[in-house]
Amino acid sequence: MRFAPGKQGKRMSRIFDVDTHLWRTFKSVSETRSITRSAVALCKTPPAISMQIKKLEALLELKLFVRGDDGFRLTVIGEEVLAAAEKILAMHDNLFRLKNKNPDSELRLGMPDDYALFFLQGIVKALARSNPDLKIKLVCKTSSFLIDDVDQGRLDMAVVAVPESRVMEHSEYIRREELHWIGDARLVRAGHPIPLVHFPDGCICREVSVQSLQFAGMASEIRFTSESNFAVFNAISAGVGIGVGELSLIPGDTPIITSSLLPALPAIRMSVLSNDDRISRAVLSRISTSVVRSVNAVCEQNILGKKRPENAFAVGAF
């Protein structure tokens, strides 16, 4: 960049703006090595492409291309300018992508039905304090479907349960939870299939219990299936079958089965997943922190027996 004499003998830098269209044309010609091919790619005429290259060279006062038998080739300084142009265009395009990321927009939040029973009140209160303008749309599904919804951009965030060994991108760890068999222990009889009460396919708890029984060489049959948390709990209470629940979410009046006939269950991990297609990663990170704190607070209170939600009937809707 040249300097021109200023007042009192000082040298003042000459400031100019380069239109992003010039940078895009320059980048295209550097890739195609052809004015004609770049004209087709950019839906312009060849004279317009030539004029834009000349204008850019005049603004920069640099020779960017040399013409040879194989078309237009970048000069040494042209290579350096191309590297800068690519950064400029990347930053420019990223700024326009931010238009669709409104931190005050609706948060599409997902969690299993039993998680909503225990955690939703605390989460909503925490988010109302930290993000008073945030609108929330809640979706209740089993974890497998919620994970897919986040991956596909149908949800911005979800609280899910996954096997402890599973690693997921864009997730924040909440806590480790032990699983326990719950229900009427008299339903567990040697030589008989274990009757199970569960949520539909996609329920991690359903997969864990069935697989654990299979690994132990034990037969099982799902006697009752429902998407309703209330219905599943009542089926267990009625003795239709047994279920599986997390230690911190098992209601105080629900018996934990300690039968030696049943295999031990692996632990699961609670996590918060997020997708920043609509809401910026920074905003999602702050929301996720509030969710993690709220969920942990409820779980710890339940374990200590200080608080049990009324009509609690969580039995593994995750």
TrEMBL record:
Which InterPro entries does this chain map to?
LTTR (IPR050176), LysR_HTH_N (IPR000847), LysR_subst-bd (IPR005119), WH-like_DNA-bd_sf (IPR036388), WH_DNA-bd_sf (IPR036390)
Q: Does the keyword Transcription apply?
A: yes
What this protein is called in its record is: Regulatory protein, LysR substrate-binding protein
Organism equals: Pseudomonas syringae pv. apii
Instruction: Name the domain of life this protein comes from.
Output: Bacteria
| HTH lysR-type domain residues | 18-75
Protein family per UniProt: Belongs to the LysR transcriptional regulatory family.
Task: Enumerate the Gene3D superfamilies for this protein.
Answer: Periplasmic binding protein-like II, Winged helix-like DNA-binding domain superfamily/Winged helix DNA-binding domain
Give the range the annotation lists for the signal sequence.
none
**What Gene Ontology molecular-function terms does this entry list?**
DNA binding; DNA-binding transcription factor activity
Which Pfam family is one of those matched by this entry? HTH_1
> Which keywords appear in this protein's UniProt record, sorted alphabetically?
DNA-binding, Transcription, Transcription regulation
Keyword Transferase listed? The answer is no
